[in-house]
Design brief:
The chain is an alpha/beta fold and about 425 residues long. It has 13 helices and 15 strands. It has one domain. Strands 3, 6, 7, 8, 9, 10, 11, 12 and 15 form a nine-stranded mixed beta sheet that branches. Strands 1-2 form a two-stranded antiparallel ribbon.
C-alpha cells in the first residue's frame, strides 16, 4: 500500500501494528470512553490525576502533514531555473509568490499568514528530512515520530520529551483529532488522545445515575482482569471520570474573533487553543493534517491544502491572543516529493522538504537551512537533498524553548549541537 488518505498512520493493515502495546492502547477505548487516556508500556500502566497548572508554560504544537507534503510548492525556490524546467505544468509562478527574497517565496495560498511572516513570527527551514531516504509512508512516519534509530523500542520522541519535564500530568502530552495515540506520543509516559475534548467521558455523561451505574460496572469488570488490557481499561474509566475540567473546554468558543474553517484541522486547532488558554498543563500537542500524497493534480490539490492550513493556523494564533507568545508550532511531513512532475501532473515520493515554524520563539520573516542545488552536471536532480536532519530542527526548538528537557534522551545519537542557526530563540 503506497498511499495515505486517512489520519491514522497504518491501522490494522500493517504487519507491525498487530496486538502489541499500541493496539492494546487502542483497545482500551472499549472501556466506553471516546478518548484513550492511558499509556501502556510493556506490562506497566501509568496513570496520574488531572490538576491545573499555575502560570504560563511553553507549549509545542506539532502539526503533522501526513502523506508527504511537497515542500517545493509550499516554499518555492524561484531562483532555481531547474524548478521551472522540471515542472512545466505544475510550478508555482514566481509572480504569484508572497514573502519573496532573492531565492525563495511562499505559495500565494499562505496569504492568511503573511502578517505573521512580516511581523517576524513565521519562518521556513529548507532541505530538512531523514538522514537517509525512505519513500515508504509508514516506515518514514515511524522513523520521524520515533526519532531513535538506535533503539528497537517503540517510544515516540514527544513521549520522551514529556518524560523529561518536571511535571507528571497526563495532559502534558495530547493528540487531538483521534483516539489512537500516534507514534510520536507513544511510550511509558501517560498521554491523552481524543477526537474532541467533550468526548473525554463515558456514555450518559449528562445523566448522572446512568453514568454512575455504567462506570461502576466497567470498573468491576476490569478489576476482575489481571492482564494489561484490564488495567488499561480501568485507567481509562478512572481518568475519564476525573476529566470534568478538560471536557468543559470542548464547548469553549474561539476568542478574539477567530474563525476556523470548520473542518477536522480547524476543530483540532480550536480545541488545542482552548486547552492552552485554560492552562490545564499541556506542554506538547500534536495534530494531524492529511492528505498530501499528491501523485496527480498537484497544482490545485496543494493549493487547496495550503489554504486550509493557512486559514486555520491564522485563526489559531488569533484565538490564542497573548498566549500565543508561549506557543511554538512546527510542521513536519515524512518526506518531500520528487522535483520533476509525473505524467499525471502530480509528484512522486521524494526526499528533502520544508519545515514551517510559527509563534513564540521563532525568528521569523526568514528562510533558514543550507540550500542544495537543484542541478547536478547541468541537469535537474531527482530529489531535493537533505542538508538538515529533522531532529536538529526539533532539537533547536527544545533547546531554546524547553531548556529543562534532556535533548540526549529525546534525540539520542542525533548529533545535535546548539547552533541558533535554524530560526529559533528562547
Amino acid at each position: 500500500m503506497d498511499t495515505i488518505d486517512t489520519l491514522t498512520p497504518c491501522g490494522d493493515a500493517c504487519g507491525d501494528y498487530t496486538m502489541s502495546r499500541r493496539s492494546l492502547l487502542r483497545n482500551a477505548a472499549i472501556a466506553g470512553a471516546a478518548g484513550a487516556v492511558t499509556s501502556v508500556f510493556g506490562d506497566a500502566v501509568t496513570q496520574t490525576v488531572f490538576g491545573a497548572t499555575t502560570g504560563p508554560q511553553k507549549v509545542l504544537v506539532l502539526l503533522s502533514l501526513r502523506g508527504g507534503a511537497d515542500g517545493l510548492s509550499m516554499v518555492v525556490p524561484h531562483a532555481e531555473a531547474a524548478y521551472y524546467t522540471a515542472r512545466p505544468n505544475t510550478a508555482v509562478a514566481k509572480s504569484s509568490l508572497i514573502a519573496q527574497d532573492d531565492r525563495f517565496g511562499l505559495h500565494p495560498a499562505f496569504a492568511p499568514l503573511q502578517s505573521m511572516w512580516t511581523s517576524g513570527r513565521m519562518a521556513a527551514i529548507q532541505a530538512v528530512g531523514l538522514p537517509a531516504p525512505n519513500r515508504s509512508h509508514f516506515e518514514a512516519m515511524e522513523l520521524i515520530e520515533d526519532a531513535d534509530p538506535t533503539s528497537s523500542a517503540r517510544i515516540g520522541w514527544l513521549n520522551r520529551m514529556i518524560g523529561s519535564l518536571a511535571g507528571s500530568d497526563p495532559f502534558e502530552g495530547m493528540y487531538l483529532g483521534g483516539t489512537q495515540v500516534p507514534t510520536s506520543l507513544y511510550g511509558p509516559d501517560t498521554a491523552v488522545a481524543a477526537n474532541d475534548l467533550a468526548s473525554l467521558d463515558l456514555p450518559f455523561g449528562n445523566e448522572v445515575a446512568k453514568r454512575a451505574v455504567l462506570a461502576q460496572g466497567l470498573t468491576d469488570a476490569y478489576a476482575a482482569r489481571s492482564d494489561v488490557l484490564g488495567r488499561a481499561g480501568a485507567t481509562a474509566v478512572s481518568v475519564a471520570d476525573r476529566s470534568t475540567n478538560v471536557r468543559a473546554l470542548g464547548s469553549s468558543r474561539p476568542q478574539n474573533g477567530a474563525a476556523y474553517t470548520g473542518d477536522a484541522l480547524g476543530k483540532s486547532l480550536g480545541q488545542a487553543a482552548a486547552v492552552i488558554r485554560a492552562g490545564v498543563g499541556a506542554r506538547a500537542i500534536t495534530v494531524d493534517y492529511g492528505s498530501w500524497d499528491h501523485h496527480e493534480g498537484v497544482q490545485y490539490r496543494v493549493s487547496s491544502m495550503i489554504t486550509g492550513l493557512a486559514k486555520n493556523l491564522a485563526a489559531f494564533f488569533t484565538d490564542l491572543g497573548a498566549a500565543g507568545d508561549d506557543v511554538t508550532v512546527v510542521t513536519l511531513s515524512e518526506f518531500g516529493r520528487r522535483l520533476a512532475q509525473n505524467g499525471s501532473y502530480g509528484l512522486d515520493h521524494g526526499y528533502g522538504n520544508a519545515v514551517l515554524a510559527l509563534g513564540g520563539g521563532v525568528k521569523g520573516g526568514q528562510y533558514y537551512g543550507r540550500w542544495p542545488s537543484l542541478t547536478s552536471g547541468g541537469k535537474p536532480v531527482d530529489d531535493l537533498a537533505v542538508t538538515t536532519d529533522f531532529r536538529h530542527v526539533l532539537g533547536e526548538v527544545l533547546d531554546r524553548r524547553f531548556p529543562d528537557v534532556s535533548l540526549s534522551s529525546v534525540f539520542p545519537g542525533s548529533g545535535y549541537a546548539s547552533s541558533g542557526r535554524l530560526g529559533f530563540m528562547a
